[in-house]
Structure formats: C-alpha cells, structure tokens
Amino acid sequence: MLSNEAKRAAHQRRVQAALTDIFNDPTVMPNADCEDLVVSVRRVEFGKTVRDISIDVSGDWRGAVEDPFASYHEKYMRAARDRGEETYVDLTDVTRSARLMEVVARELSRRLGLRYVPDLRLSADGREGDLDST
Questions:
Q1: What is the per-residue pLDDT for 1?
Q2: Buried b (16+ CB within 10 A) or exposed e, 95-130
Q3: 77: three-class secondary structure by DSSP
Q4: What residues pair up with 64 in beta bridges, in sequence order?
Q5: Does the pLDDT of residue 129 top 60, yes or no?
Q6: Do the beta carbons of residue 123 and residue 55 sit within 8 Å?
Q7: Which CATH architecture has domain 4-60+91-122?
Q8: Three-state DSSP class for 29?
Q9: What is the pLDDT of residues 80-95, one digit of tens each?
Q10: Residue pair 22/104 in contact by the 8 Å Cβ criterion
Q11: pTM above 0.85?
C-alpha cells in the first residue's frame, strides 16, 4: 500500500503532466502565442491540500528566430487588428489573470477526472497568488 507521501507525489506528477498538456493545447488556451511557444510547467506544489496548487511556468519559442518577440509580436498584433481588437492575449496574460487561470483549473479537473476544481495559482519569485481579477 502506498504511503500518503507517495500518493501525493504521484498526483503531483499527473498534475504537472496534465498542466503541461493544457498550456500547450491551442484548443484550450486563449493566448495567441500558444502555437509558437513550448510551455513547460517547471514546478507544481500543493498547499495544505491537493486542491491548492501553485505552479511555475515558462515558455520557449519554437524554432530558431533571430528576434522572436518582435516578429511574433507583429504577427499577433496584425491578427488582433484583423479581428477588430486592440491587442492579443499572451502566456503572461493567462498566468496573471484569475479568470483565465480558472479556465486552466477547470480543464485540469476535467482531464484528471477530479470531483473538484483546484485553486490554481502562479508561484514566481514569492508572488504566489498575485493575480489580476480580469
């Protein structure tokens, strides 16, 4: 029989793998840069319960581009203008928005068959939970 620590560690690995899949799934993610980034969930930590999840994410550009930010930024701005919008949503916007992180948390719950929606927070440089309400 597995100990509670072993069960928690196994769940942590499942959560990390599912979150990595979610952050890289353009059908779920509202960020324009999703298809051009490889997002890594570098760390998953549970709070007092497994419902409280802090994550650390990073994105690396796919392929070799000399100045990826400038060229991708122009691409996303052009697409936003074509849609009649002023700007686009990127990975940073997703991780800093409570509303968009809720989308990720609901998808995590669905993919793992959880009976609850976890409280998902960004944890970076000690700014855990520093999310915008948008």
A1: 74
A2: bbbeebbebbbbbbbebeebeeebebbbbbeeeeee
A3: helix
A4: none
A5: no
A6: yes
A7: 2-Layer Sandwich (3.30)
A8: coil
A9: 999 999 998 888 888 8
A10: yes
A11: no
Number of helices (H), then strands (E), belonging to the chain: the values are 4, 3
Give the span between the Cα atoms of 80 and 4, in whole angstroms.
Answer: 48
Q: Give residue for tokens 């100045």.
A: 67
Angle of helix 98-112 relative to helix 4-23, nearest 10 degrees, comes to 120
Q: What is the pLDDT of residues 18-77, one digit of tens each?
A: 999 999 998 888 787 778 888 999 999 998 888 999 999 998 888 766 666 678 888 889
**133, 98 Cβ separation under 8 angstroms:** yes
The ranges assigned to domains in the chain are: 4-60+91-122
Tokens (6 digits) for 4: 């509670």
